Amino acid sequence: MKNLLQILLLSIYCTSAIAQINLSGAGYSQDFNQLASGLPQGWSVKTGASVNSLGNDVSGDFVATPTPTVIGANGTYWKNTTAKFKNFASFKSSLIGNYVQQASEPDRALGVRQSSTLGDPGAAFVLCIANTQAFQNFQLSFDLQSLDDTNGERQTVWSVDYGIGDNPSTFSTISTGHMTGANQVFSNRINTTLPASVNNQNQKIWIRIVALSASTNPLNAPSPTRTSSAIDNFSLSYQLMPTPITLSSFTGEVLSNQVTQLKWTTIEELNNAYFSIERSNNMLDFREIARVISQGNSKSEKLYSLLDKQPEKGLNYYRLCQIDNDSTKTCFKPIALKIEWVDSGQQAGIYPSLFSKNQPLLLTWIREETPYIEIYTINGTSVAYEIQQDGGKNYVIRLKEDTFKGLAIVSVWWNTTNILTQKILIE
């Protein structure tokens, strides 16, 4: 079940980050065997790539579907000379010269046939990573394949580089000198280590396999043509960065004077600058209320505490966040503390601000008469509920139908007087 904030974030992600991947686990791999359905998530192909430019996206011209017909403009066979990015059969010695079998081969590779006007130089296979936050020690491997032994005298030099940001203006080379062409058919495994500058980045990382310089004619052929080049079995491994702190506990209590006291314990700290304590009354909008400086690098138990002298009435959600020396922020699971309605001038209170079929609302009411309650969406549509007195002057409000999710408004009335109007989130 997604709450409203998650839906908004997903909407933003879907409109601005379609061509990227999000890292998880200990590695990412791509075998390109599903290219008939199009380029994989996060991948694009470009021409005009340089050390100062991502290049021009030509992913829309990618030839996705191999067809076992006579070699033509849409052929995806190694020997076909049509300049395009294509869905090739991955290298096997048994496929040399067997074009029909190349088309039906299930093991696929992402390739390109260059020409003087397409990708020579500037052809690039590009992977976009949303960010590398909390990851380090990146190792990259892939197969670089040269796929034409009779019609590809020219030789192309491929480099591996990377850029940082939404649209990088500078790319840094990781490795270079990887050759295809010269009438050779082969698959070479390329292994390289990404520099520490890509670790723990909170912005996009672009990894490219790119032809930055024009092809050459090492065989001195009188009319040299270009080869088909491809990549396959792309693999990226990485590790989680050490956590700057090891949190043993985070607890809180309400003191007799309606002040909340928060306590937390760490058993290890490394490069920890300070703690940020954040508070919310709806689990959505957290704001910082205090900072506590770290006691320094340690492998022993450290105790911390904080008094919040002005908590809000009702439920207070507290979140502990840790900020390390390079400003990286890590937040932990929040806790909830309830402040009772003790002010006699306060006639009604509703908490929490989250409402679902399994999470009822509690109405605190100081009057003898039963209140009248309305619940409606921000568009004015009524939300069905049922109410039951829960001893004393408290009422429990339960969602009657699970038909609406999102922001809503609760309005409490006594006679013709509006006592309380409050936003809630139905999830």
Helices and strands in order:
Blueprint: H1 4-16, E1 27-30, E2 43-47, E3 56-57, E4 85-89, H2 99-104, E5 108-113, E6 124-129, E7 135-147, E8 155-164, E9 172-181, E10 185-193, E11 205-210, E12 228-240, E13 245-254, E14 260-269, E15 272-280, E16 287-293, E17 302-308, E18 314-324, E19 329-331, E20 335-339, E21 348-351, E22 354-355, E23 361-365, E24 372-377, E25 385-389, E26 394-399, E27 406-414, E28 417-426
Parallel strand pairs: 22-28
Antiparallel strand pairs: 1-12, 2-3, 2-6, 4-5, 5-12, 6-11, 7-10, 7-12, 8-9, 8-11, 13-14, 14-17, 15-16, 15-18, 18-19, 18-20, 21-23, 23-26, 24-27, 25-26, 27-28
Characterization of the model:
Keywords: Signal. Residues 1-19 form the signal peptide. Helices cover 4% and strands 46% of the residues. It is built from two helices and 28 strands. The protein has helices at residues 4-16, 99-104, and strands at residues 27-30, 43-47, 56-57, 85-89, 108-113, 124-129, 135-147, 155-164, 172-181, 185-193, 205-210, 228-240, 245-254, 260-269, 272-280, 287-293, 302-308, 314-324, 329-331, 335-339, 348-351, 354-355, 361-365, 372-377, 385-389, 394-399, 406-414, 417-426.
